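Throughout our pipeline, every protein is held as a single compact record rather than as scattered files. The record that follows is passed on verbatim for readers who wish to inspect the format:
___
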Amino acid sequence: MDNAYEAIIGLEVHAELATQSKMFCACPVVDTSQAEPNTAVCPVCSAMPGTLPVLNRQAVDYGLRVALALGCEIAPRSVFARKNYFYPDLPKGYQISQYEQPLARHGRLTILTPQGERLIRIRRVHLEEDTGKLTHIPASPGGEAAYTLVDLNRAGVPLLEIVTEPDFRTAEEVRLYAQTLRAILRYLGVNSGDLQKGVMRIEPNVSVRPRGSSSLGTKVEIKNLNSFRALERGVAYEIQRQTELLQRGERVRQETVGWDEARQATFTQRVKEGEEDYRYFPEPDLPPLLVDAAWLDAVRAALPELPAAKARRFQQQYGLNAYDASLLTAEREVADYFEQAVTTASDVPSKTLANWMTGELFSLLNRSGLSLPACPISPPALAALVRLVSRGEISQSVGKTVLAEMFSSGQSAEAIVAARGLRQVSDAASIAVLVQQVLEANPAQVEAYLAGRSQVAQWLFGQVMRAASGQANPQVVKAELSQQLEQRKATT
């Protein structure tokens, strides 16, 4: 980016709330990628005349969880409004949302960037209903016209919109914020975080202005990004596109654009509406939402330990560095797995367990396509394996082989080691005999070592390990080999 310009970016995140039923009716919330179209629809969410909405209390609870986790000021009285626009996926012709009096305001979220911590301000958190899903069918080569299919299964699903202030300056910061927010939503249990299924949709508003200017540039909204990679690349592309327009003296048009993954470029969808185009007015069929102190206290008391706090505790309690703590707390199930393993193996260094988890175990999971909850190795089973390695009963390399067999067979480390005779030999007397045999069998190499070729010691070490079928304790072997070689040197 030209240093004469800077990007000013705000972010809107739409997170579907993981309730059992929809926002204003009793229809079940279904997976729109799996369910038959238009099977979770009733007169309320299909906007039949004479129907009335009824607010889902669980959706409000979930919204309060998020708002509290983001340090927001909760409004004791918030108001739903009608946001008017006409589109095939919105049968009412308006969306029930919140605007002037939202559920919460003035929050904050700290993200960790390579340059240090960055505080991102949250402008508001508000509740609304989702729209339906459109599937566009292109025209066929035979001449059939293009058409669009409408699925209303998603219409009316509870949606939480989290809007930031324009505090981002780079595409990387936007990605880090989205990843941090996703982790919080998953910890709170309010959203699965599955971007590919559209349950969390990210929409950045990107503008560029001359560096040092206090006025905002013309913003362009990138709609419905569904991966962190697309988010970062889309924002970076839009920053570059707008910068080049300004460099040529051209004007940036306020519009909504989409992201074309194949072309790695944005494309125009529609000229952006202003807030006045939505003609907001209070929803006449819903009374104001009142949140009293008792309700708020109950929600606050049920909040879990969040990722940032957990990472700090992992550093203090388990002696982990910031990187390991962050990696182990990014997902709640990973943090829980680690803590169960640590509790089971209090005699094993926490750092050692962390290394086995983030290294060998994660590698096995990635290759198999499994998530940690589906892992065939339980936390106590992993702890038992690491304990064998830490005590020197099996070597590091043998431990990796045993872990792979545990993963495929479901057997315990102890059972595999016993059945295959893998236990490491640490008996000094036995190893001394092996070392002596190897030295006597290789007099030329011994003579070379005694003549000053110290690198021969490594070759002799390999011969001892081979003679022990790899089961001798390497540290004991090295010590004994060094001792016997030095004894021979002293007698020459």
